[in-house]
Predict the structure.
Amino acid sequence: MTAQRRSTALIGDDNSVVVGGKKLTWRTLHKLPQLPSPAAVLVDNGADALAAVRHHAVHGTELLVATSSRVDLAMREELGESGFAVVIANGDEHSVTPARLKRVEESGRVWLLTSGSTGRPKRIGHTLESLTTVRGKQQPRTWLVPYSPGTYAWWQVITISLTQADQGLVVIEPSELETWPRIAAEHGVTAASGTPTFWRQTIFRDSEALSKVPLEQITLGGEPVDQAILDQLAELFPGARISWIYASSEVGASIVVHDGKAGFPKAWLDRDPDPESERPVLSVDGDELVIASPHHGAGLEGAHRTGDRVEFVDDRVLITGRLDTDEINVGGSKVSAGLVRNVLMAHPAVAWARVFARKAPLVGRMVAAEVVLNPDLGPVTDADLVQWCTNRLPDYGVPRRIRFLAEIPQKETLKSDV
C-alpha cells in the first residue's frame, strides 16, 4: 500500500456534483491554490472538502481533510508538530499555518482521523487506491453524501464518484440534514449511505418525504445494524437493494451484507483468504471480532482486533457494540446492551433506544435505557416497555429504568452514543 502520485486523468471528472444548491462537476469545482505538502485542510462546507480531494488526486499532495469542528487547537498543534501545514479553507481564500517540523513528504498519502469514540482521534494512513473499494463497473447513480468530510464513510462515497463514470453526488451540509429528503428528491438521488441513527432520525421526522426519494440503493454502516431498521427501510422502499457495511479507518470496508438480515452468516468466519476477490478474513476471539483485511490502513497488516463485541444468534454473527461498553454485569449475570437495544427497537412504537449500565444496590449494576417513541403509534409507558422486554429477555436483562427523550440524538458523525 505504497503512497504514490495519481494521474491527472480522473474518470469521474465529468460526474455531477451538487453542493450548496449549485450543480457543478468535479472538473468545475473551484480550485484550491497549490497546497503545501503535507497539508491538513480544515473545512466548514462540502465544496471546500471536494476541492481538497480533487487537488490531492491531481497533485498527489499528502493530505488530511476534516471539518474545523473536529480538530481542536490541541490537535492543530499536534498536526503542526507532526509536519503538517494547517490550512483553513474558505472558498478561494485560505490561511496557512506552516508546519513546525520539516519532514519528507509521503506523496499520495491520505490521512483519516478515527471517530475518537474510544479516546482521542488517531491518524490512519491510506491512499486513494486503498480507499477505493468499489472497483467493478457500476450502473449510473446519484449518491447522497450526508457524512462529515474526511471520515472513512465520506471517503467511501467520494471515491465512487471520483473513480467511476456516471456516479453523481448530492452533498448535504449539516444545516440541510433535517430537510435532506426534499433536496434528494429534487436532484434525483438514487443511492444513499448513512448510519442507522441517520435513517431512524429521517423516518422519525418525515417518513412521507423520505418515501418520495427514488432510492434504488440504501446502505447502512458506522453503528450496529439491527433488524428493525432494515425492515423499516424495506417497507418504505420495497424495490431497493438494502446493504449494510462494516468498515473502519483501520481495516477499511470489510463486511458487506445484501440479504436484508442483521449480522452476517457464521459460514463467513475463518474462510481462506482470496486474493482475487480481496476478501477479508473474519474471525472471533472470545467475544471480539478480528479482521485481516486487504483494505487496511498503512502499517496495519495482519489480524486486527476491532474492539467490537459479537453475539451468535442462530446462524448469524451479530455485532452488538464496543467491548468496553456492550457487556453489562448484573449481579454476576452478563447481558449484551446491544441485544437489549435490539429488543427495545423491535417494539413498533420505539423509534430509537440507547441501553447502558446504571449503579444499583445489591446487584452492583442494572440495565437502564433511553428511548424515543414514534408519536404516531399511540401512548406507550415505561411499564409497557418493561413488559415487552420481560417477555423476550432473561430477568437480569430487562431495563429497570427507562427515560423518554423528545428527539433522537445525533453527533456530527451521524452516530448516536450507543
In short: The CA atoms of residues 345 and 352 lie 6 Å apart. The chain has a mean pLDDT of 92. Residues 36-108 form a domain with the Alpha-D-Glucose-1,6-Bisphosphate; Chain A, domain 3 fold (CATH 3.40.120).
